[in-house]
Amino acid sequence: MTNLTLASVRTIVDKALAYAHEKSFKPIGVVVVDARGAVRMTVVEDNTALLRAEIAHGKAYGCVAVGVGGRMLQKFAVERPHFITALGGLTHDRLTPVPGGVLIRDGSGALIGAVGISGDTSDNDELAAVAGIEAAGFKADTGA
Amino acid sequence: MTNLTLASVRTIVDKALAYAHEKSFKPIGVVVVDARGAVRMTVVEDNTALLRAEIAHGKAYGCVAVGVGGRMLQKFAVERPHFITALGGLTHDRLTPVPGGVLIRDGSGALIGAVGISGDTSDNDELAAVAGIEAAGFKADTGA
Amino acid sequence: MTNLTLASVRTIVDKALAYAHEKSFKPIGVVVVDARGAVRMTVVEDNTALLRAEIAHGKAYGCVAVGVGGRMLQKFAVERPHFITALGGLTHDRLTPVPGGVLIRDGSGALIGAVGISGDTSDNDELAAVAGIEAAGFKADTGA
Amino acid sequence: MTNLTLASVRTIVDKALAYAHEKSFKPIGVVVVDARGAVRMTVVEDNTALLRAEIAHGKAYGCVAVGVGGRMLQKFAVERPHFITALGGLTHDRLTPVPGGVLIRDGSGALIGAVGISGDTSDNDELAAVAGIEAAGFKADTGA
Question: Could you tell me which SUPFAM superfamilies the record lists for this protein (chains A, B, C, D) (predicted)?
Answer without folding.
Answer: GlcG-like
